Amino acid sequence: MDILLLFIGAYLLGSISFSYIITKGFKKGDIRKLGSGNAGATNTLRVIGVGPAILVLLLDALKGIVPVWIALSLHYPLITAIVAGGMAIIGHNWPVYYGFKGGKGVATTIGVFVMASFFPSLIAGILVILIIALTRYVSLGSIVFMILTPVLMFVFRSVPVEAALMALLIGLLSIWRHRTNISRLLNGNERKLGQ
């Protein structure tokens, strides 16, 4: 029962759309109807600027950090903690408060991965920053992070195999959410950072 409550609480926390709330606060309207239409930090950057985007990024990452931290504090296995984080990601992507139309869960996934295994996340994050700096494709960097971090968890054996597999499933969920971005990347018409 406690695990079920943890998962439900993680989903409800994840369902809070900070990009929606902050954009509304700036009286710009519904973030899902502006810019790229995605309820996340990158679209917040496009619509209302750097400061709000950084705030959204941090708050969305916190949605992934908190459930994992709570689960580990309660001495649940790491895989349970990652599943709790996964529930927050599901909440972000399909939020109950906003008609189940949310973002792609990148920042929340970053929060989960950092809590689950810091050094693989750090290495992947540094590489992703370089990729985004060189290409200006945030989506490409996000996709690389989602695959590379779980792979590095396997390589470094920083987490149990079942936890790394769960992280990989979460990464694949994010890649699936990026399927339209992948199509645009392949077709050469994906929007670059700053466009």
How much helix is in the residues? over 70%
Oligomerization state: single chain
Average predicted local confidence, pLDDT: 94
- Counting H and I runs of at least 4 residues, what is the number of helices? 10
Our Rg estimate from Cα atoms comes to 16 Å
Order of helices and strands: HHHHHHHHHH
Instruction: Please provide the count of β strands.
Output: 0
Principal-axes shape call: globular
Structural class given helices, strands, pairing? mainly alpha
Low-confidence stretches: none
Range of strand content: under 5%
Largest sheet: none
What separation lies between the terminal Cα atoms?
48 Å
Number of domains: 1
Structure description:
There is one protein chain. Helices cover 73% and strands 0% of the residues. It is mainly α and 195 residues long. The mean pLDDT is 94.
